TrEMBL record:
Species assigned in the record: Azospirillum argentinense
CDD domains: CAP_ED (cd00038), FHA (cd00060)
Name by which UniProt lists this protein: FHA domain-containing protein
Residue stretches making up the FHA domain: 169-230
Taxon lineage: Bacteria, Pseudomonadati, Pseudomonadota, Alphaproteobacteria, Rhodospirillales
A Pfam family per the record: FHA
Length: 264
């Protein structure tokens, strides 16, 4: 018979490599799903109230492929593998929902692969033909400055430019009471209030193959870089930064968390 459990922010529901010996139906609360590699952890998604957690390992008959950690306090119903499979076989709407979720995951992966291929093609073309002046390749000696692009953000981080001294540079939200610390330690943590536009680990500025880029770190609402949306709901997770002034909006279109990233 299914059991009910309570969990607190920071609790681990399972780790990557654990046996897939149960499935969680999240009643309320939020869980982050992490792919761990040594001491590093990559945020790959969130599970919230009304969603299943851990069903893939049971369906595939494999061990856990990721780690699940509570972001907030909450409650869940815990089913054995057989209880879960019996429920799926009896409930056509549940089966359709799982199929739809798998389809969305597959489409997201395909879109990300396509986006990465487009990025690689663009980088190859720039290397072969030379970058136009607006996309001149930044060098290691150029300064990277981060300033507020809106009055709301300016009131939070101040009017002065922040020099990015070391890469990668992570921007995120200050956790509120009851939330676990983010997997990464943001270099710039900014206060936000519910409903949040910023995620605790939101975006990162880094260098790859001589180019500076912005990566969305699995944020809830995504990031917009020079008008191009990136994040888990879009075709790609990264966008190149140009020489000169770039606009980066954390939290999707219309968010007050608008940054100006200047390279030069």
């Amino acid at each position: 018979m299914a059991q009910s459990i309570q969990f607190k922010a920071g609790d681990l529901l399972f780790r990557r490599g654990d046996a897939s010996d149960c499935v969680f139906w999240i009643r309320h609360g939020e869980i982050e799903v992490l792919r761990e590699n040594g001491d590093n952890a990559i945020l790959i998604g969130h599970v919230r109230g009304g969603e299943w957690l851990g069903e893939m390992g049971v369906i595939e008959g494999r061990s856990r492929s990721a780690t699940a950690r509570a972001v907030s306090d909450g409650a869940a119903e815990v089913l054995t593998p057989q209880e879960f499979l019996d429920r799926v076989s009896r409930d056509a709407s549940l089966a359709r929902g799982l199929i739809q979720r798998l389809s969305i995951r597959l489409r997201t992966i395909e879109d990300k692969i396509a986006g990465d291929l487009l990025l690689s093609t663009r980088e190859a073309e720039l290397a072969e033909n030379g970058a136009p002046s607006s996309e001149a390749l930044p060098n290691d000696n150029e300064r990277i400055l981060l300033t507020a692009g809106s009055d709301s953000l300016r009131s939070r981080i101040g009017p002065s430019a922040i020099q990015v001294g070391q890469l990668p540079f992570v921007v995120g939200r200050l956790p509120i009471n009851g939330e676990a610390s983010p997997p990464r330690s943001p270099d710039l943590s900014i206060d936000d209030q519910p409903p949040f536009r910023l995620s605790r680990d939101h975006f990162m500025i880094s260098r790859s193959q001589g180019r500076l880029l912005v990566s969305d770190l699995g944020s809830t609402l995504g990031t917009v870089v020079n008008g191009q949306p990136i994040g888990h709901d879009f075709m790609r997770d990264t966008a190149l930064l140009n020489h000169g002034e770039n606009r980066v909006v954390a939290g999707g279109w219309g968010s007050a968390f608008e940054f100006i990233v200047s390279i030069g």
